[in-house]
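Late entry, written up from scratch paper. The run itself happened at the end of the previous shift, but nothing got recorded in the book at the time, so transcribing now.
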Amino acid sequence: MLKGFTAPRSPWGIAALVPSPPWHFAGDVLAVEFWNDPDVSVHLLPAGVELDERCRGRSVALFTDYQFTAQNDEHLDPARYQCRGFSVLLDALWRGSRIAWCPYCYVDNDAALMRGWIQGYPRKFGTVHLSRAFVASSTASAPLVHDGRFSACMSAHGRLLVQARITLRERAERLAGFLDRRIVGRRYFPRLSAGMHDKPAVDELVRSVPHHPLVTDIWTGEADLHFPEAYGEELEMLGPLKVGRGYRFSFSYSVTDIEVLADLTA
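Output as recorded:
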């Protein structure tokens, strides 16, 4: 009998691209709050999701540097299970509930790409870099202090898509009013069969269900953010009209479940 949570299924299940849940994550984040043109971003929403009128256009650019493990010490295989990623989250509503809609997401690892598709993140391959803070004090280590400076960027296919810079100003106890919405995405798997191209096998709106979330070492400060125009991409449509605060923090959480909000095939 073939085994494995994902393809390729095999006699032992070891070859599967992603192991079975529960999944555990830990890493560092650089994030920037910004506002884009709501008349443009509204066209990125599926049926049933609408922009939050109380903060139309408010969004988050999220750069992550993290590692993953399941049940078999996968974190000891860093080449396979370390990842860096970038996501955009839009403040939105689903039937009156506050959500963060994820229209675009990039990662640099095939296992993370597959995990994202399973969870409803529209992930593509990208190259992401973030300034790192090391325990050993050095001019080469971005310091977690007042006036400490951090940078992040994301590119795909040799083209720069996002550039961010953050200057830390103060430590914070919590992310008050920031990243306090559950993320909603779309699980979408099309059919290749003739006559069925517009009838996907799976089309679901899903909401993340993080377990045991922890956010620590929070710093906030001033930020700059740019979305350069690039051939073959549409991320620049969400380019910031105004940039708010920047954030740097560390996180951990686990995933064992997902909430299906709507079956759009119906």
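The two ends are 33 Å apart (CA to CA).
(Scratch paper discarded after transcription.)
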